[in-house]
Amino acid sequence: MILNEDDIELPLIFELGPATWKVLMKLLAVREPLGPREIARRLGMSSHTVALYHLEKLQDHYLVEKTSTGEYQVNPNADLGFLDNFLFVRFKVIPRVFVYAIIVTSLLLFYATFVGFDYSIHSLFALTIGSISVVFFWAEVYRIWSGIQ
């Protein structure tokens, strides 16, 4: 069976694209209606028409709605289940994996500081697993954060 491009349904996150994703993240982080000019200014876009294009794209997917004043806000009825991996604290969007990276890094530092290293197989194993985990967690934090900022 051969599939056409029309037969393949991508998850919404892939349909949005990185610039539209950043507009949505900004609206979620700010938690107040913003106009295209303000979005363009805050995200460093070339013009407000670029921001308007992305806002209309989000509106087409029912993720944002236009207010009576011409500003855009997150649609309260939008299905935002794909954002479960993020925390929204004040005006920042934080990937949940950031919290896990801090916990694993703290545990590794605690182990290295208070338990110490005695060249036993257990110490080698703990430090190796801990170090690899820390590297992977922080690499994932960097990857996600660079995509949403």
What does the model show?
This protein is mostly helical. The protein folds into two domains: 5-83, Arc Repressor Mutant, subunit A (Orthogonal Bundle); 93-148. It contains six helices and four strands. The strands form two sheets. Strands 1-2 form a two-stranded antiparallel sheet. Helix 2 (18-30) packs across helix 4 (48-60) and helix 3 crosses helix 4 (48-60).
Going by CATH, the architecture of the largest domain would be: Orthogonal Bundle
Q: What structural category arises from helix and sheet content?
A: mainly alpha
Question: Mind telling me the C-alpha Rg?
Answer: 21 Å
CATH topology of the largest domain: Arc Repressor Mutant, subunit A
| Proportion in helices | 55-70%
User: Biggest sheet: strands, sense, closure?
Assistant: 2 strands, antiparallel
Strand order of the largest sheet: 1-2
The overall pLDDT average reads: 84
The percent range for strand residues is 5-15%
C-alpha termini separation: 40 Å
According to CATH, the homologous superfamily of the largest domain is: Winged helix-like DNA-binding domain superfamily/Winged helix DNA-binding domain
Number of helices: 6
Low-confidence blocks of residues? none
Tell the overall outline: elongated
Number of domains: 2
For this structure, what is the CATH class of the largest domain? Mainly Alpha
- The run of helices and strands is HHHHEEEEHH
Strand elements, count: 4
